[in-house]
Batch of 2 targets.
Target 1
Amino acid sequence: MSKIREGTVIDHIPAGRALVVLKILGITGNEGFRVAVVMNVDSARMKKKDIVKLEGYYPRIEDLMKISLVAPEATINIIKDYNVVEKRKVEVPKVIEGVLRCPNPTCISRKPGEPISSRFLLVSGSPLRLKCHYCGTEIGENDVIEQLVGGGRS
Ligand code: CTP
Ligand code: ZN
């Protein structure tokens, strides 16, 4: 897999999750910049992993937070002139506000007209479990992926 000149390499994505990461970033492939995806490559640390390389693209902070939920070990490498100029791990936040919807239809965070956005607290990172701050309903990794990609679980 060739090196990129400028852009972002998202490394240490769980094997098979690269397409979920692209979906979260809203990247379809029609944007015109070069996208490289490798799936199920050998990794010392993770056994198998996926990698996404995005030429000339730099993700937004909000998107990195979402990526942390589906790829808690991911490393974000910022590339300038072929060099890694910044490397950082995503961080799974302790509190996730406004991004996910509580599945409980009677939860106050879902009342129409209430100015209350959803709030989930991190119960466990691996496997991912989040708990609604308002009603206590718990959601897991599959629910989160489903919500973030909007439907299918690919
Ligand atoms: N990379 C790239 N293009 C570049 C520089 C790096 O595609 N111009 C990719 C590398 O192939 C690797 C990732 O960015 O997948 C991180 O690069 P580097 O820090 O050099 O690799 P490692 O030291 O193996 O990373 P880590 O320690 O995070 O595992
Ligand atoms: Zn709730």
Target 2
Amino acid sequence: MHRIKVRVVEDALDANNTIARANREDFDRAGVTVINLMSAPGAGKTALLERALDDLGDVRVAVLEGDVEGSLDAERLASLHVPVVQLNTSAGFGGECHLDANMVRSALSALPLADIDLLIIENVGNLVCPAEFRVGEDVRAMVCSVAEGEDKPLKYPLMFRACELAVVNKIDLIEHTDVDLDRLLANLQTVHPGIEHLICSARTGEGVDALRDWLIDKVAAARAGDGTFTPAGSAPA
Ligand code: MG
Ligand code: ZN
């Protein structure tokens, strides 16, 4: 029984990767760099995007906003006058707690791929399964707020291993918590040695320039042909 179960999971990830590759080809054809942005609910993905996407220079950006239901975040981002497409997992995808390649594919025709350089996919807030599903992105990044505690990399290692950038958000709150920032960063390095991190506050704007520069650098690297897509079902070792 156990073997059959494992087989089913592998097949599902294979099917996802096939669609992720098709998405990837569409993104490549349009010259779009894609970031899959993940975090627990409430870590501040949307708030950081509100700050960072305000001025990306000549980089034309759009956002694919993933939520189980509603369009609250999409409405916030639409005020930046960037194209925003809402993808609800409750609409035909069983209310899933993550985005997968097929869901993203269903939204491609609504995205102005020919007119953008950067697509940010804001995944459903969840520290677990979004990390298991490639959607055709170039790069995966995650936000962890200091309010979540310093132990999260140790408790949800796949997410932290799957991403090449961890944005430590809500640094303005740290004095109101018992969190030791050095311990949090050490836990991050334990789980994913060499992972890049940025210290930010979407509330005060601290560190947002560095996040903006990171996004612009990713577009520049993709333009230079330095693609990093590896169609693995799970994180690289
Ligand atoms: Mg959000
Ligand atoms: Zn899920």
